[in-house]
Specification:
Shape: elongated
Strand order of the largest sheet: 7-6-10-11-12-13
Order of helices and strands: HHEEEEEHEEEEEHEEE
Number of helices: 4
Strand content: 35-45%
């Protein structure tokens, strides 16, 4: 009889690359769950279904993706939302809101990032805009210094549309960060809509 280990080692090399990059772990019942390395993600098959766990340098997250209709023969896990340096400072959010408002007043979209590094914590990073219109914004994607990570990717709608568009969904397919939209009503009152993006999965 072919062993499970042999079956795994006989996989095509491309499958091995994919599974090493994003493994699925059966949650143990009688042992501790192994730690996830910083910068990686994995799927967890737990007693109640399938979970996604991700660990960007600035946080640690675990969310359910699918609930099983019956108990599975694996261990239990809990939801996790941890920010290494605590919540993003409100003054940085307000700075972004003010920049978006300034552009909305002239019917232009705006874009900006909040980044994090272990030594300096959170910081606002303005982006070099190539072209901005009422419905789109193109910008030069910066190369972040080593040890610096994107935490929040903001853009604005200078009109009253507080949901993410199909273009937003496409743009947020890769990486681990929060995506945010500032939208505005006719009186220039703003609303912030946020979601957490973990390698193509969205958690609002």
């Amino acid at each position: 009889m072919t062993s499970l280990l042999q079956t795994i080692t006989d996989l095509d090399r491309k499958d091995l690359i994919l599974q090493n990059g994003c493994p699925t772990l059966m949650v143990p019942i009688y042992s501790s769950l192994p730690d996830l390395a910083i910068g990686y993600r994995r799927f967890l098959m737990a007693r109640n279904g399938l979970w996604l766990e991700a660990k960007p340098p600035w946080g640690h997250f675990r969310f359910p993706l699918w609930f099983s209709p019956g108990p599975l023969p694996y261990g239990r896990v809990n939801s996790v939302t941890v920010l290494v340096s605590g919540p993003v400072p409100p003054e940085l959010i307000e700075l972004c809101r003010n920049e978006a408002t300034r552009k909305a007043k002239i019917s232009k979209e705006w874009v900006g990032w909040i980044v994090w590094d272990e030594e300096g914590g959170y910081e606002y990073l303005p982006l070099e805009v190539i072209e901005a219109t009422e419905v789109s914004v193109r910008y030069k994607v910066p190369v972040l210094p080593e040890g610096t990570s994107l935490v929040m990717d903001f853009h604005s709608h200078p009109f009253n549309m507080a949901h993410f568009s199909g273009t937003d969904d496409h743009d947020d397919q890769g990486g681990m960060y929060y995506s945010g939209i500032f939208s505005f009503d006719s009186g220039m009152n703003s609303k912030l809509t946020l979601r957490l993006c973990l390698e193509g999965f969205f958690f609002e």
